[in-house]
Amino acid sequence: IMLREIFGLLRLRKLEGLQEAAALALSQDDKTAAAKTLSGIRTIYAGRPDTAWGLARLNEHDKQIIDPADRIRLAERDVIAPLDGEAARIIAHTARRVGLITAVTPVAALDILLVGAQNLKMLRALATLYGGRPGTFGTMKLARMVIAHLAVAGGLALTDNLIQHVIGKGLIGRLSSRFGEGAVNGILTARIGLAALDLIRPLPFATTEKPALADFLREVTSFGDGREK
Predict the structure, then answer these.
(1) What is the pLDDT of residues 58-72, one digit of tens each?
(2) Residue pLDDT, tens place only, 120-140
(3) 190 neighbors 91 (Cβ within 8 angstroms)
(4) Which residues, 6 or more positions from 193, have their beta carbon under 8 angstroms from its beta carbon?
């Protein structure tokens, strides 16, 4: 168990190191940083069916004369970008579930425990998707990193524009009810998921657009209009 936990922590650290090396390669066209990043990408995603095509394409690019920064962009497009869709699905599903849990749970203390568990489960799923494989300690460490990241970025507070957007979705009559609380908790969960992407995605967003909180509002604010999928 301890070896598994240590391995999970090391994998998270490796993802963080790859992101830093990739950012250096992109900003300074650094050949050494690009080589380190691509080697790490091949090691982490080797043997996975969902990245096999992208890795094959990455190997084909090695035969061509390409700038280091462009190699990172190609790796993002072929290997990492296909994983982003699944990451968005995980975030949207968890945000919707958190909204439902808040709406139907009668006891506030139980509500907090269940929502916290769902958020930790989401963080672990996202880290595993991108190659982190965190255990219990790794998941808790990632949660602390996400909270610190949100605190620095000011992402723990809901802005007036966001609240107006939610009201525009037809929740004005629910803001004082459990449905309104569920919507707010669901939005915060989506924000936590997006912050996690900043930390565990091995390559920064360069060729693809980073998902925005507004992309998940429909999923979150429609939880009271039907059954969970």
Answers:
(1) 988 887 868 899 999
(2) 999 999 999 999 888 888 888
(3) yes
(4) 87, 90, 91, 94, 95, 122, 123, 126
